[in-house]
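Researcher: I've been going back and forth with a colleague about how non-specific serine/threonine protein kinase might be arranged in three dimensions. Neither of us has a model we trust, so I'd like an independent prediction. The organism is Solanum bulbocastanum, in case that matters for your notes. Sequence below.
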Amino acid sequence: MMMVSCKTFSSLKFFTLFYLFTVAFAFTEEAIALLKWKATFKNHNSLLASWTPSSNACTDWYGVICFNGRVNKLNITNTSVSATLYAFPFSSLPFLENLILSKNNFSGTIPPEIGNLTNLVYLDLNTNQISGTIPPQIGSLAKLQILRIFGNHLNGSIPEEIGYLRSPSSLHLSNNSLNGSNPSSLGNLSNLFYLSLYDNHLSGSIPEEIGYLRSLTVLHLSNNSLNGSIPAPLGNLSNLSFLLLYNNQLSGSIPASLGNLSNLSSLYLYNNQLSGSIPEEIGYLRSLTYLYLGNSSLNGSIPASFGNLRNLQTLILNDNNLIGKIPSFVCNLTSLEVLYMPRNNLKGKVPQCLGNISGLQVLIMSHNNLSGEIPSSISNLTSLQILDLGRNNLEGAIPQCFGNISSLQVYDMQNNKLSGTLPINFSIGSSLISLNLHGNELEGEIPRSLANCKKLQVLDLGDNHLNDTFPMWLGTLPELRVLRLTSNKLHGPIRSSGAEIMFPDLRIMDLSYNAFSKDLPTSLFQHLKGMRTIDQTMKAPSYKGGGVYYQDSVVVVTKGLKLEVVKILSLYTIIDLSNNKFEGRIPSVLGDLIALRVLNMSHNGLKGHIPPLLGNLSVVESLDLSFNRLSGEIPQQLGSLTSLEFLDLSHNYLQGCIPQGPQFHTFESNSYEGNDGLRGFPISKGCGNDPVSEKNYTLPVKNVISELQYFQMPRIRRRWRNGFGSSYVAAYDVGFDF
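Model: Here is an independent structure prediction for non-specific serine/threonine protein kinase. You can compare it with whatever you and your colleague have in mind.
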């Protein structure tokens, strides 16, 4: 047995004690440094109350983990800290491997001293308020594997030094304001499997060197300003599962080499400027689950190879220049949940076999040149939520069985050539939110079974040949916001239902161009709660099916222009009763509908006085009471309508002085023509009792015209040039998105 001398034992004891003392001293130094940093915090939550001088940092402090008595990991994510990194003890934590400060309120810049953390493996600063540039010193962190600094306000370019990291596996720099081009040095990161730079301001081309990153599984460069073509070497990334390049300015054709990406499950190239045909090779990606190629300038037909994509769940081809028929092999895509290809040049019939894709949730083929009848087999799709075949050339009858698809939320067949009657069997428990059959050749009555659709928000049956009386029973639908029955053969008086609450959430009522007659019942307007409150937070109906958002648009006539308005319910509340045979007086209760933006009652037989309560319509922009039999004076209260941009009171029997007000001074004489008893500005007859007569108002008006000739007056002239005597005369279509 080897004997240990007393001298040797004493030496071991000394070095052990010295080591423990050194560790304890070093640990104390690290703890003190962290406490000094904490002292700079403007705010933090109770979790960091454990950081005290009297407690053990390694065992008692929240978020601190030690190894061999030295601080090894620091994780204070989501602790409500408000501070900067300027006082962080970079030089006092030499053994720190994990630094996680995410989801707090750190601000200021990343100090260059971060390069002192030479053992750092994991750096996570995501979701803070950090600004400034990425310090090049990060490139000297030889052991760094994961860098997560997304969700901040970083700017400037990505430093070339990032490409000098020796073993990074994940770079997540998205959701910042980084600019400039992607450094080619990124191609040096041979171990990288995750690269996310999306939602920045990066420009220039995608470096071909990225094609050298054979370990890469995720490449996310979307929502930037990248240009140039998609590099063909990306086809070398054999492990790639996600290729996301959408919302850029990429041009040229889709490289056929992408067909080599055998592990690819998601290919997102939409919202670019790509051209040429879709490569057949894309159809060889048998692992593909999501394919988004919309909003480019792709042409040619849908490749036959797409029939191989048996795992495909979402196919997005919208807003391209695709031609040809919808191929029957689409029906082989039995996993498909979303088929979305509106706004192309597709023609031919809608395949009957689509009814065999049992899991289909969204089917949208609007704005094409499709013809033939609606396949009845689509009614077999029990999971279908959105069906939009609008703006095609479809004809024939609507299959009666469509009313029985209980999952259907959106049914849009507008602007086709459909004939026959509406489905009569809308079932109890229906999920229907939007029904749009506008612009067809439908006849008959409005089916009473629509009263079963308790979730219905939008009903547009305008521009058909429906022959019925007013469906007052629709007023029982609690969520109905849009009711458009314009341009049909609806007739007769609108009778009160006797119900206490009718149309409680209605925002748009368009009954124009029918043959409704008799007096307007007060009960039609007195329960319109949705029009009694100005709610700027109200949003248009939108629906999500299969991960795709769908939003209604409604065509309205306002200020003489026919507008297709998207998100209309966020701002617009409309009543249009024009071009009917209504008689009697204008109900004063309309003055309670203070959210009204457009009120059009022109071309009827209304008589009596204009209700002074219309002066309460503080946000009304368009008021058209022309071509009636109204008499008396124009209420002075209308002069206070500061939002009014279009006014037409022409061709009535009005008399007296025209009210004075900031908006009334902008209307031309056409607004009042055909009322021989009116006087005052801007018509030729003066109004002696006016505070501002024609004589003394002419000069300031000319001055105003001179100052605003490039803004306001061109609008007014254009307004009259397009025929505002009748708000539908010479109207033209305008794309409109609020």
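Researcher: What would you highlight for our discussion?
Model: I'd start with this: The mean pLDDT is 87. After that, consider the following. Residues 6-38 form the longest helix (33 residues).
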